[in-house]
Each structure stands twice: as structure tokens, then as C-alpha cells.
Amino acid sequence: MTGVFTSTSLLLRLCAAAALSLAVFGGGTAGAQVHSPSHADDLAVRAESLALEGRWADLVSICETAARKGGLPPALTDRYDLAKLHCDVARRHAEPAFRRQLAELSEADARLVYGEVLGRIASHHVDAPDFARLAARGRRAVDVAIGEPSFVALHAPQATPDRLALYRDQAARIAAARPVATQADAEASAAWIARAAHSILGVAPSVTLLEMAAAAVGGLDEYSAFLTNGQLDDLYAQIEGRFVGLGVELKTATDGLLVVHVIPGSPAERSGLRAGDHLVGVGGRSIGGLGVDEAAQLLQGPEGSLVTLAILRGPGPARAVTVRREHVDVPSIEDVRIVDPATGVAGLKITSFQKTTAADLEAALRRLEQAGMRSLVVDLRGNPGGLLSAAVDVADVFLERGLVVATRGRSPEEDFNYSAGRPGTWRMPLVVLIDGDSASSSEIFAGAIRDHARGTIVGARSYGKGSIQGIFPLQHAGVGMRLTTAKFFSPRGLPFSGVGVSPDVPVQVASRPAADGTLVEPVGDPALDAAVEVARRASLPRPVAAQPSPRSTAAR
Length: 556
Fold this sequence. Notes:
Blueprint: E1 4-5, E2 12-13, H1 37-52, H2 56-68, H3 74-93, H4 96-104, H5 107-124, H6 131-145, H7 149-155, H8 161-177, H9 183-201, H10 205-218, E3 225-227, H11 229-240, E4 242-245, E5 248-253, E6 256-262, H12 267-270, E7 278-282, E8 285-286, H13 292-299, E9 306-312, E10 319-324, E11 326-329, E12 333-340, E13 345-350, H14 357-370, E14 375-379, H15 388-398, E15 402-408, E16 416-420, E17 430-434, H16 441-451, E18 455-459, E19 467-473, E20 480-489, E21 505-506, E22 512-513, E23 519-520, H17 526-538
Parallel strand pairs: 13-14, 14-17, 17-18, 18-21
Antiparallel strand pairs: 1-19, 2-5, 3-20, 4-11, 5-6, 6-7, 7-8, 7-9, 9-10, 12-13, 15-16, 15-20, 19-20, 22-23
Helix pairs in contact: 1-2, 1-3, 2-3, 3-6, 5-9, 5-10, 6-9, 6-10, 8-9, 9-10, 14-15, 15-16
């Protein structure tokens, strides 16, 4: 395992390529959602319509947040899982590097991949494996794949209607004749399915086996995932905070993609892109209606290459913007400033928890101290998480000693207590600003500050993600897996899953309906204003901070 990762699925960070999973970030009020019968019925009707139209990414989009918070109506669970399978197969086989690896992968090595995936699940996943269910989802994934035109064109040259029916009959016979109870049973069943797909449809056994491996991981929980070559590289780049690309974060929109954030100093910023812009075309091609991964592929390219984007901003026609793909350093600390010089209220925003976050935070605090900081607002709104070790180190900047977070898994080797205790604690009054999109590592930090009474939590209840994921590169094919290995708990032993962190000072910020039925965002930033007011009242007459020691990112 190469790292302990806590993030929710991120916004599509197109610095290099597509995000690690579907690029639809789940926002809204944290905690398990309670669906009224009418809401559930409306969701079911919409999901049925999207399924009939084959709009699988949109179906995932409307269900994902509720599924992650345990609030998806049971009647939609199977349809949601089917949509994820459709999206996953399309995404994987749209990736050129993955297709190249598949072409070179032998059946023997693919069997090893499948066996290693099941073995990792058996030894590390937070829940005991149900091998029968994993094998059944693998068979279903193959059935989905052979119905996807893009997959058939690449891998199933003999997939006529008659042969598809023959294969499905044979797969059902294999499942009935070979019940699965153990890992060995699952591996044997997968080998038979791969042979049937090869002899009847012409699908290479390695292709079938990797589809079944991916399905086994993806069906465990909402955060475990099979990682292709490109996804694994993207994840490492995300942890390091360095990409090749444009420097924007995007999410889906009806007409293409919405620019959510432009990274300071990035080629996108230099080209004039702003948050709120709508990206409607890439390289002369409209992206309205495209799947998010297909749109992401159009934005990828080597360092130094140019891409022309069609951008909509307000009324009027789209305009063309040409951006050069470059190395982009993604800062995890932004908006470092003195908010109120009269009282010395300082503020900064932590956008994610990556390797450099704690060191970058120390540097920002030194600048703020020199500028007259007496109290500090740490803005975690929209922060989806990142490295667990980074969250511990950031908490350690403000805590003198004591437990920061505890992890508990099925295996004793997943049980850890992470504590503060480094010298050089910053002691200024602290306010932490959170919202429903503050998740995982953000919640670890906010929970530690709350439990140690080190600061005041302001805003809205956080997302409620209480699990951690390990990153496991596999021995063959250059692929890997992100696997949920444990759940984490606050210093007082409080869970985060489905609960989140509740603010000491709640601030409800909601859009209001205008006369024409559109939603109007509130003027200004009421949540930040409330946090600044709390910090203003707590401001010290002078800075109180120890001299920080050099930063270490190792977990303690």
C-alpha cells in the first residue's frame, strides 16, 4: 500500500486528465438523507427515464450523493449499480494507455491480477468479503460490457445477437454449476467465464478477467475503485499536487462542463478563464451531451501542446480561448490574507490535504504573523479531503498534544491512533469554517479542533465521510485499486460516517427563489462574515505563536 487517502470523489480536476471516478461531486447538506415518498418516487421516475435513454452518467449523478450518505431508496440501488457498471466500462476502454496494457496482457497475468484483487479485498477491506457477490457482479459487468458498442467494437468481434444470447446462456450455466463460496471458487468461475466469452464472442480472456476484477472492487462500497494506468498516475499527481494540463476544476453542466475553480498562476488563469465559465466546446467539437470522461479525453494532451476551448460567459455567443498545457502546481493553501487589519483577523483556505499542505500552512502562518495576525479563520468549505497524514500534520500545527484521529478496521493492522505532539504549536484563537462539502480529512481536522476545544466551528454540518482508503498498485498491467480499509473516529471516539461535524455556530446559507423562478445566491459571503465576527471577538491583543519547527509530513 502506498498511501492512506480519505478524499471523496473530487471535482473533475482537469490539470492532467479525468478525475479518479465519475466527475460529479456530491454537495448539499451532510448526513444521511431522508427521502419522503414523493421525493423517492420522483427520483425513481427520473432514474427510469435516464436508464431508458442510456444516460448512465446522468443517472449516477442524481444518485451518487444519496448513495454515499446511505440515503438512496432501496428500489434504486440496483439501477444505480447498473449505471456505474456502464460508466466504468466506457471510461476504462476510452483510455489509450489502458487499452495498450490490455493488448500486452496475457491470460496468465490477468488471472494473477484477478487473484491479487480478491486477495487484497480479503486481507484489507473493512468488511469481510462475500465472494459469491463479487463473482456475480463480475459476471454482470461482462454482460454490461458486451452490450456497450464501444467495447464490442474493440474487443468482441463475434458479438452477433445470436452469439450474445448463446454466451449469456452459457454464463448462466457456469454460475449455476459452479457455486462460489471461497476465493478459489471465484477465481475458477472467472476463468470459465473468460473462456466462454473468448470462444463465443472472441473477447480476449485477459479483457474479461480485468472487467471482473474491476467489478469486484467497484462493488464493495462507494469509495473503493479499480484504478487504470492513467487513474493511478492521476491519483499520485493529486497527492503530490502537480499535474500537466490546464489548471481548472470542472463539473458537469447541461451544455458541457462548468468551470468551478481556476488554479492561481495556471495556464487557464493566464488565458483569462474564470470560475463560472461554461466550457461548451473543445478543439472545434461541441461537448454538450458528451459523457464526462469522453469530454475529459478531449482536454488531455502532452506538455506544451495547445487546445482551443469554446467558452460561454453570460449572454452572447461562445468565444474561443486557446490554452497551453503545462506543468501546474496545485496549491492546497489559498486566499492567505489579513481580513480585518483593525483586529488582526487573518484567513486562509485549505482546498485539499496533500503532501505539502502542512509545510505550506506553516509558511502562510509566518507571513500572516508578520502582517499582524491575532486570530485565524481556516476555511475548509468545499474541501473534499486527501491524505490522512496531511490532516494529522495540519491538526498538529494547532494542537500541543493528544489524539487527532483513530482508525479502526477489520484487521488489527488497520487500527492506529494518530496523535499530535510536535514542538512549535501555533496558539492564536482559531475559527474553522465548514460546509456540507467539507469531507474526510477536513472532518478529521475539524473534529480534532472541536474535541480538544481548540477553536470554534462555524458554518454547516460537514459531509459525513468516515472511511479511509489505501492505494494498492497491483503486480501486473500497471493498474491498481483504491480500497476502503478502515473507518476513522474523532479523539472522543465519535464517528463521522453519515454524521459529520456539527458547527458550534450554525450558518444557514441558501439560495432564494426569484420572481422568474430562478435561484438567487445570497449577496456577499454570510458564512465567512459570521466566522470573521467570531474571530474578531476572540482576537488577542498581540500574536501568540511558538517558533514552528521544520515540517515533517510523516504520520505520527
